[in-house]
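Worked example

This section walks through a single chain of length 413. The input is the sequence exactly as stored; nothing has been trimmed or padded.
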Amino acid sequence: MKKISIFVAIVLVILILIYGAIFVFANAQGKDLLISAIRDNFGIQANIKEFSFRFPFSVRVKEFECEDLSLKTASVSLGFYNPFTYHLSLRAVRLEGLRLKIVKDEKGVCLSPFTADTNLKSRTIATSNFDSDGSNHGQKARLANDSSVADNTKSISVTINDFYLQDSSIEVTNKDRRFMQIILGDISLHVRGFTYPRFSKFKLKGSTSVFSTFDSEKVAGRVRLDGWVNYQKKNMDLNLKIDNFDYSMFNSYYPLSCRVDNIGIREASFSLSSNLVSEDNDLTIDSTLSLDKIEYMRKEEAGDSAYSKAGTIRTVVACFRNNQGKTAINFQIKTKMDSPNLDFSSLKNKISGAFNINPFTILKTLTGGTKDGVVKGAGKMEDLTIGTMIDTFKNIGDNFTDIFKNKEKSSSE
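Given that input, the structure is written out below as tokens.
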């Protein structure tokens, strides 16, 4: 018994000495090591005000800056690492004051400043594919060797029990096909049970304010998310709400025919409530689109063409106004979870169906009731197609869909 006690005491002393050595080394050299790793791997300079290793096993970074990427504080509470399964468990990750830019172009998606051009390793590998005489005779042998090494190397999987993101901002820019720039600010996000690179079922709850780069001080809308996602099994149940989205905030991205000054609208805002449910990759999105506020231009300031289009919009609004004076439309979208396609045909059909209820009554409202006016009114309704306006918002959704598709593809690779 005495020998066992002595053995346990010796082991404890050794563990305390090892922990003490790690504690001292991390606090003395951790900041320099992290800065050097970023410089050596990406060729960019980072600045860190403070790097600390805290009891029992947590790391804290304060005032991190690296070109377009910055954050006020970051803390990671370490869990357990299994060397046999290459699995690392983190109890909690907290990021506060994150400022990040995501850019998508023809090359793919990148987090600025960590673009493909700044990765020194990629440039080194690309250069080493050629022999000293400029030929690439040894390239196949190198690739074969690299593939065999890759087969024998297991990637580390990471599980984050709790991930918190607070008081953060992400700027999203799409330069591929349709240019669009949007800012997600005041981000508050909690993700529980997240695993990478193989996504397991995780829960998430968050909210953010949407800003336009044309007016970063004014909130264009508020977005809230709550639910769970199991991407591996292609199942999900997620609630999405967009409150008081200001139509005019992204006016420059709309087609000319849908911009506020061309449709006779001074101000308009709407809300969207959606429930996204997927079973075995079959995703059903049940949504309610409601008009919160709309203000029309006077005829003298809008002009004849814009004023007549505003009349069409008035009619659409009247068709979907309920007894409480609220304008709302329910519609459904069916698509695939792993390759979502936002098809708004059901919404278009509902609006078209509303016109079919009594088209001559609607045309009389727009034209004053004369026979010639009815014919002209039909032409005016052709000028402003509801489908064009819906397709405009589909394009906005597709921008985000394209980005996330690209990210998911990169993760699986």
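What to look for: The CA atoms of residues 210 and 254 lie 17 Å apart.
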